[in-house]
Amino acid sequence: MTGRQDVVIIGGGHNGLVCAFYLARKGLKVRILERRGVVGGAAVTEEFHPGFRNSVASYTVSLLQPRVIRDMRLHERGLRIVERPISNFLPLADGGYLKLGGGLERTQAEFRRFSAADADALPAYYDALEGVADVLRDLALKIPPNAGGGLIELLKAAAQGRKVAMAGLPAQRDILDLFVKSARTFLDGWFEHEAIKAAFGFDAVVGNYASPDTPGSAYVLLHHVFGEVNGKKGAWGHAIGGMGAITQAMRAACEEHGVVIETDSAVEKVIVDGGRAVGVRTADGTEHMAPVVASNVGPGLLYRKLIDQADLDADFRHRMKGFRAGSGTFRMNVALSELPNFAALPGEGEHHRSGIIIAPTLDYMDRAFTDARIHGWSKAPIVEMLIPSTVDDSLAPAGQHVASLFCQQFAPELPDGRSWDDEREAAADHIIATVETHAPGFAKSVVGRQILSPLDLERTFGLVGGDIMHGHMALDQLWAARPILGHGDYRGPIRGLYMCGAGSHPGGGVTGAPGHNAAQAILADRGLGRFFGG
After folding, report:
1. pLDDT tens track for 168-178
2. Burial of 482 by CB count in 10 Å (0-12 exposed, 13-18 middle, 19+ buried)?
């Protein structure tokens, strides 16, 4: 048994680091226990082929909260983020292409190649999306009201809803549309050309095992646009040195304030005594006792595996059985001897520094989901490729490159009892062949690859069902209902237990918001901070 500390945090992912930082800055003694040999969770940079390094799982930056960056002084600790010159590049089925981003006027000019009406509709679409995104930004660093919590919770709900109430009827209609409609229904109301709808609709299926026709998928689209890079709202970028540069800077901030970080220390049980969490036990039998236990792992892992079911009440156990996780994500990193050459736009260009999206229509995305449900993975998968070595020469040998392949609609569990251990190589070959159809010669340029199936993501990073979001981003698992209603305020169903990971509000992505907010809840309960965090 180790000496006592004020807080033990399960998992050294970015939210765990953020939570630890804010607690330690207030003078609490904090210990982080991380199962892997490196902190960062899914936001890490590792060598996957001799001479080639890349962000292993999380791979791009936008949603990281500016307040977290500022408070942890991440830029002063060496973090540098380079913006994409354009957001996305989509090779199309007819041999053409579409570029998205680079400013309103430039995107309108691009859209006019397809539809003058869509180009004209774009400013109003951006205004509508940005208006709702501002509501999300306003809520991101606030603790949601807790159902059944009495007058103070009602006051919190009223305060957090004030921005919506004051938004005006058109904006309220936009909010309703984005929270309940499918991505297709929402986009059909704005645009007519299929390629343009696909360019926006892709965000609706990222980390979302669903069709763009699934009600609620429009919200996932919205979730991916409320971030910013270097003060530019909605922008995306590359962290120089990979995503590990973010979490290593966070580690330095934590250690500066005295946080003890133990790697290779897998928590296997939350110790509960008298209805209260009092510490954790690791796989080697060591007990770390503390009056506060904060979990940075997903709710599925925490409540199904790390806590004795007898310590949870029957209704909570029942609700947690229904908690949905599994994002349908298949992740690859590939070492390349040369840049891919796209048939639709030959030669090197700014499109190599953008998100390269192979998903030319919403129908293509819908078929990918249908295939995955029936067969386990799609005959025509959805692939996003980023090539960070085009802006960061530290990742690959001179003249060579690394690419992140982020692929959607791969079933968390394969049908007919099949295992991803048996099919991961075939799926990886199929993904590379899919890119090859748009960039002839791509397959021959691959000199090394790292494969992370949904099962690999679960084994390596503790992401149940390979869910990069720690749980579906659906209306019944958002805000005050994330992970379930009654525990949306980061406080678990056991006294002394808190949740600081992406399974809490505001959800997935490298945001730091759950860690920030959970720390505010812990500090408030210990009389060290205002209840209304943020």
Report:
1. 788 788 888 88
2. buried
